[in-house]
Amino acid sequence: MARQDALQGSLHLLVLTLLARRGPLHGYALTVQIEGMSNDTLRVQEGSLYPALHRLEEAGWIKARWATTDTGRKARVYEITARGRKQLESEEERWKAVTAAVGQILKQA
Amino acid sequence: MSLWSRLSNVFRTDRIDRDLDDEIHFHIEERARELMAEGRSRDEAVRQAERKFGNRLQLREQSRDVKMLPWLDSAITDASLGVRMMRKNAVATATTLVSLSLALGACAAAFSLLDALVFRPLPVRQPDQLVYLSFPTYVPERPESETFNDPTFVRLRDAGREYVDLFAMSTQVIRTAQFEGATGAREPIRTQHVSGDAFERLGVVPAAGRLIGSHDDGQPGASPVAVISHAFWMGRFGGDPGAIGRSFLLQERLYDIVGIAEPRFNGIEPGRPTDVWLPYAMYDPRAFGNAGFNWFRVMGRLKNGAEPHQAQSVLQVAFSAFRRDVVSGLGPDRSPEREKEFLGTPLHVRTAATGVSPLRRQFERPLWILAAIAGLVLLVAGSNVANLSLARAAAREHEMALRLSIGAGRGRLIQQVLIESALVAVAASALAFCLGAVAAPAVVAMLSPSNDPVTLDLRMDWRLASFAGGLVVIATALFGLAPAVRASGVTPIAALKGTRTGGGHRTRAMRPLIAFQVAFGVIVLLVGGLLVQSFARLSTVPPGFTASNVLLLSLETVERVDLERRRAALLGVLDHLGRIPSVVAVSSAEYNLIGRAWTHNVRVPGTAHDTFETTMTPVTHGFFETMMIPLVAGRTYSRHDVDRNAPATIIVNESFARRYYGSETAVGQVFEETFFDDGAAVQHEIIGVVADTKYDLRQPAAPMLYLPMPFRSAGTLHVRVSENPTTIAPQLIEEVKTAGPLFRVTSARRQSAVIEGTMLRERLLALLSAFFATVGLVLAAVGLYGVLSYSVVQRTAEIGLRMALGARQASVIATVLTDTAKAVAAGAAGGLAAGLFFARFVENLLFEVKPLDTWSLGLPLGALLLVAVAAATVPAKRAAQIDPVIALRYE
Q: Which of B63, B65, B68 to mutate to test binding with chain A, by most A CBs within 10 Å of its CB?
């Protein structure tokens, strides 16, 4: 449970970052990327990514369309929007501020 | 995502689910492929991929929540809950639906009728620029005339040029035409003569061929062409392009069809579409230059920027000048008062934006009255709905309280109740729409006798849709909101504890509604009662002759013959018919007694100028016997009187004798008068006096003068038969053909049907208002019953306690009834006052009935009392039979 919670809080940030750096991706690709990058630390039930994606879409930070993959299959591909990039910047800063603060506390404690 | 797409998502949950499923499916497939690449079997790979993915259903729910506006989703839930509740209370729902849809349907029907007859502009270019001319006639039955003669028109047209372009369109006349040559069938067509510039001024274009133009206005009789309407083209020729170029026989002339008018234009009279337009110059040649031949309407299109009053001022000058010329040509033989009246007659310029319609003049007010009555019934029905939903809200107090206490917002509860009202309203309006679609044409059929049907374009367009939509919205807001607010005003603690402190409030909230309901009901009853009584009285007015079993056969001469041959042939037909066993008596008359086809001004003896109007009725021998008009003095016509050439013998009615001779006996008197245009003054001898008959049941009998049939036309056969006139009619038509090949029967009507035809307006009002009054009464009864039963249930414990303490049954019943009785009394009083006010609008449609009659006031009150007592009986009985022990234990 703890691992999941940790992921949930930062899932938005992760998704936005990935989409900003790697370009449009479908849900499965995002799952694989998150798993790969975090060395399986952030391993969760894969399905829980999707409500997060839909919330981001609802907020207008990412947009989705149906596209054909290299293997010739139909997939729903997500892409970051301009508003999403702005959101990413501010979330990144907040994240950095928070982790810095937490690091500070851990050091001094 | 925009608000719209979210809103639309609510109604596209299927698509969202499908998108989600596709997305999930793709994910699992990809994962499975990867696993298969690692060497697992397909089945196992898929299983593992699904496990890794997690709970699909839960995921779907989560995503859907994100994608839809939550309140709209809850609205759908509320609606389905509402439908379930409606199913549970099937009887209440059915009552509500039927009453609401009846009232809504009636409103919608009334609106579509009014729209077709009154509101809708003519489908021509800038209809608001169109005007028509009219002037007062000072004759009570027809206060205003809109027909003009050729010389007046020419003067007016030239005088008005600066402000208005005047053109002529004759009144519509049904004539018989033969499209298949002289031996073909005779078909009735609605014809209208128009001046050459009429179509151009109106802005009507041809659908094919050409329209009537200025070049058709040349010499009278020189241009026998015709333009047919698009509807007639489709109906008569099936849209065959070959119709142009065909010809038809009309009044012994051959007309060529030269064009078809555009589909949307069917003349300028709503309700009476024109089939065929003919050139102005093709009218009766005697009409041209003749100031005595009034036969067409003068229409006009105002020039850009011109105002009707500017046109009126110049036209008035020309109109008055023309009348001065006419008077100076007549010589001094006129009363000065009438001459002054004649010369000072104003000319009205009236708007023709929605057409010119005698039908509208006759039925606009009745339709408004019916619309108002339907509106009142809608209010009664709406109060019922409000009461029912109040009662239901009370029954659901527990549910509401529970929901409130577990955290539902009050707004959410209001929403729930409002959505339920809206559901009822929408269902009712769907039913109402079907009802209106049936009712409106049925009313149209009641506007005219069956041989001259009215055709109203009752289309379902945006006007009707927005009207009905508006009604539904208003109905929901009016009758749904009050119960909704009440429902949310529940205090959870009290309701959950089950104490019934709130009960008193609720019946208090219902009582004003009951008062309103009763008031509206009384208005409808009062006005409906007046209209029904009026029709009842009118239809029992004796016309002065016996109409039953009289059949009227209108004849037409098939070929042009001289007077002598026509006379001989017609007398032959009379003799032949008289020998048929089932014919009791037979005679002929130029006109029927109902209506006033020919009037003549007879000079009042002993005065210089005064005249009185007398109705002229040329008849053959046997007429008074056939119609059973009693002879008062002298004798009736014999065959000999009719055989003579000169109409020297006349018979008058009692009114005439009184008017002309005072108390003197009229028989044997001689007076000199010219009755026919071409004749010289003739000495007439009065040979008999007969009882008065009515030409209009509403009017007192007028002076009437009978003279021997001059055989100017074939006239109408009046046949009294011993069996049903309708069943014997075909046989008599055959007999006429056998006896006189010279004649053809153009129509067969029952005399009683002709009389009924004069009471269409009264009949329409009486039938429909009686229907609505009944509906209103039943609804009021249902409402009363509902409220009383409810209050008995509410107060069961209280009543039980009082009975346990020794209260008598009568006082218990009184407790239950008093408050409601007060509401009913207040409603009845208010309704009477409002009804009397409303009655002023129908007063001039009433015949010998006054709103303040004992009957007029007593009828609605009596009916209401009866219904109130009936509605109260069952609840009162129930209250009286409450067993104190059970009631108290219940608590």
A: B63
Cβ B425 vs Cβ B488: under 8 Å: no
Q: Which of A26, A46, A55 sits opposite B53 (nearest CB)?
A: A46
When pLDDT is averaged across residues A23-32 and rounded to a whole number, the result is 86
Lowest-confidence region among B35-49, B507-521, B552-566: B507-521
Domain spans in chain B, listed from the N-terminal domain onward: 3-68, 77-120+363-499, 127-353, 513-542+753-891, 559-741
Is A75 in Cβ contact with B26 (below 8 Å)?
A: yes
Among chain A residues, the shortest Cα distance to B51 is held by: A45
Instruction: Name residues 24-43 of chain B within 8 A of A (Cβ).
Output: 24, 26-27, 29-31
Q: Is B366 helix (H, G, I), strand (E, B) or coil?
A: helix
| Side-chain half-sphere CA neighbours of B564 within 13 A | 0
ipTM of the complex: 0.82
Q: What are the tens digits of pLDDT across the range B529-565?
A: 999 999 999 999 999 999 999 999 999 887 778 888 8
Find the closest chain A residue to B29 by CA distance. A28
Give the pLDDT confidence score for residue B408 in this predicted structure: 64
Whole-angstrom CA distances from A108 to A66, A98, A100, A102, B59 are 50, 15, 12, 10, 42
Spatial distance between the Cα atoms of B393 and B377, rounded to a whole number of angstroms: 24
Question: Does the pTM of the predicted model rise above 0.90?
Answer: no
CATH topology assigned to domain A2-108: Arc Repressor Mutant, subunit A (1.10.10)
To the nearest whole percent, how much of chain B has pLDDT over 70?
A: 86
Helix (H) or strand (E) holding B311: helix B308-330
Are B56 and A46 in contact (CB < 8 Å)? no
Which B positions 53-82 lie with beta carbon below 8 A of chain A?
Answer: 53-56, 59, 62-63, 66-67
| Model confidence band, residue B821 (pLDDT cutoffs 50, 70, 90) | confident
**CA pseudo-torsion sign B693, B694, B699, B704:** negative
